[in-house]
Each structure stands twice: as C-alpha cells, then as structure tokens.
Design brief:
Layout (H helix, E strand, L loop, with lengths): L3 E10 L2 E11 L4 E5 L6 H9 L6 E6 L2 E2 L10 E4 L11 H11 L4 H15 L14 H13 L5 E5 L7 H18 L2 E6 L2 H7 L2 E6 L2 E6 L1 H6 L4 H6 L6 E8 L2 E3 L18 E7 L4 E17 L4 E7 L2 E7 L10 E6 L5 E3 L6 E2 L8 E4 L5 E3 L14 H11 L24 E2 L6
Parallel strand pairs: 3-8, 3-9, 6-7, 7-8
Antiparallel strand pairs: 1-2, 1-4, 4-5, 5-22, 9-10, 11-12, 11-13, 13-18, 14-15, 14-17, 15-16, 18-19, 20-21
Amino acid sequence: MAGVTIENVRKSYGAVEVLRGVDVQVENSEFVALVGPSGCGKSTLLRMIAGLEGISSGEIGIGGRVVNNVPPKQRDVAMVFQSYALYPHMTVAKNMGFSLKLAGLPADEIAQRVSRAAEILDLRPLLDRLPKQLSGGQRQRVAMGRAIVRDPQVFLFDEPLSNLDAKLRVSMRAEIKALHQRLKTTTVYVTHDQVEAMTMADKIVVMRDGLVEQQGSPLELYDRPRNMFVAGFIGSPSMNFIGGTIKKRRFVSGNGLLGHDTDISPMAGDGAVILGVRPEHLSIDTSGIEATVLVVEQTGSETTVLLDAGGTRMTLLARERLTTVPGETVRIAPDYSRLHFFDPASGLRLGGDSDVDEPGPSDTKGNTSMAPARRTSLKNGRTGPRKKLSQALEAIGIRQDRYRPELYYMRGPGPKTHAKSVGADSP
C-alpha cells in the first residue's frame, strides 16, 4: 500500500485553467472521496493521478516517488471507471484476468488471482458468463475485480455507481466500503453524491472551480464547515440560510427568526451575518415563529417539510411522522446549540473552531486552496526552459514523446522514464 501526495497541482487546457493549485495528502490505507459539483475538476484530478491526463504544473507522488512523467502502467494503480468498460466477447473470468495476461503472468497465477478476487466479490458462480448476461451491479463488481487482481498500491474510482439504480447504489456502497476495510488499499474515490462520500470515506475533499474548499473527516465537514459552500453542499437536505444582523450580541432577521432576545452570536460586535441551520435541527415548537407549510414529503422513516417563514423558504426534516398538510400554519424553532453564522461578504464561517483548516495560498484571482494538514515537499519548484516548453505544448495536447496515456492504461509500453524518489536519491 502507498500514500498519494498532490502538491500545488495545476491543469490548463490552453487559456482555460481547470485546476488552480490543489494540495491533498492521502495517507497510506486511507479512503479519500473527492466531491464537488460538475466541472469542479475532481475527475480531472483523478485522471492525473492515474496518468491519463498530463500535469501543467505541480507534482504528484505515489508511494514516495514523483510520477509526473511515469506512464500509467508503471504507477501501480488500478482504476474503476464510470462505464464498466468490459470486453463483451470475454467471460467474467477472462475480463478480470486480461490485464494479467497482457503483463505476461503465468496462467496458473492468473487463475489464482481471479479466483481470489471472485471470492471477495461473490462472483464465483458468474465466472463463465458474458457481460450481457449480468446485471448492472454484477458488471460493476466485475470491473472492481479487474482492479483487485492487479493488487495495486492505489485504487481509483471514478463515479462507479452513477449508472446504477437507487437501491443498488446503496448495496454497492456498502460492498465498496467493506472491500476497503478488508484489503486496506489506499483509495481515491470521485463522486458528486455527498451521501456516498459521507458514508464511505475516511476523509472528504470538497472541490469547487478547480480549488479545494475544505478537507477533513465527514463529521468535521458536517459540524464545522469552513464556508457557506461547504455547509450547503454537505448534508441532505442542504442547510437553510437566513440573512440578518447582529445587534447587541443578538441575531435579528426580518421574519423574526430566533426572536430578538436570544443571545447566540459568536461575534463581538454588531454587523450583518447569514445564519445557517440544518433541516434536521429545526422542529415544530409552539414557542417558535410562524411558518406556512408548502410541501410535505413522507418517506415513512422521516418527514421533509418545505416552509415559508416570512418570505424565507426553509426546509425542516423530522425523524418522526408529522400530520401537517400544505397550507397549514405551524410554529418552528431551531436547536440553538447547532447554529452556524457566516460572513455575508466572504462566505466564511464565523466563530469557528481553531482546528478547522486555514486557507492555503491565494491564486491570481483571489481564490484560495485549502492546504492539507501534512504536506510532503516533492521538489524545490524550479522549472527550466525545456520543461516550460514541454508544459506549454502539453497544455494544448502535444506531448514531446507522442505518448497518449489513455491508449496505454492497461497494456501499452509507454515512454521510457525514470521515477525519482520523494525525499531520497533517485533509484
């Protein structure tokens, strides 16, 4: 097993910069989820770790060596794609063992590895079937088995559950988590579904517009979001936000939310703030403010209610069944110990705990990237003219060695490269 170090990584396509200085440290045997909205750069970053995308600047290390110019087949990683990418004319067993056959391993060793992976994933009864004879979940398990047989240092998952139905997603989520607990292989998992990230990952990296907004354990991000974006992205349904002001250490809003006599402010002085309260921290309470019920969603185990409180749309999530109906007037109140306050100008959380990550170096547009708690220095950062030329050509899709990594992920020879060690002499 091996850790993954991502230091000040940038990626540009011509004048478009899609990754703007990303720093992430994935510890040995850790399960890290990269989450964020579409277009945030999470899949691009994963493909750069795999070697399927070039790096404009910065460095990526796997297992203590820099792999910027190491071809995918020599990085000792295995990737599970969003599409299953199974050979339709091959049986399950042949699909799982094909990469080992290309690598020249003996037939008996291939059979042994395939048998072991099939046992782990409960695929033994399906080894002689073709992909068309499998369900979506079974195909995804075969794709995972193809990665397991390679016994890599790092597993890379690129939204592997996106093509499955809701029920199957839940079961596969548990299978992937159980697989990680059994194999203890370092895993980087990309998803746009924050529920997947919360339930599976040891650490979550929240990305937006090519930058890391915050990283930490699932409960750290839930309890202490660094800014409004993270607060709204983590948690389902998303957090309610109410604009107001602080007057004499009391929060005041136009609709009277929280009342005018509740001393809950984390600020020393007066000023405009945005109050955040999660739907599960609101409840029906006769001492609260009036709100009109707009929509009621019953799921059996819980009730979601969409409300209008003085012109502010709010969502309430109750763990019990409610008898309210649309059009009814109710009174709601928050859990005062679970409130969040944000600066309207910057969006940053106010009164946060000292252990919340501080922002990293700003980029040229004033945005910031969150630096990891531990950073491994990969080099001194100096770049010569030849390397600058190579980076400029690569940014527009031209590599000097004419190597196309996406064509050689499973089998190609790739260019001859020499990996260098992190913090040690090159081998």
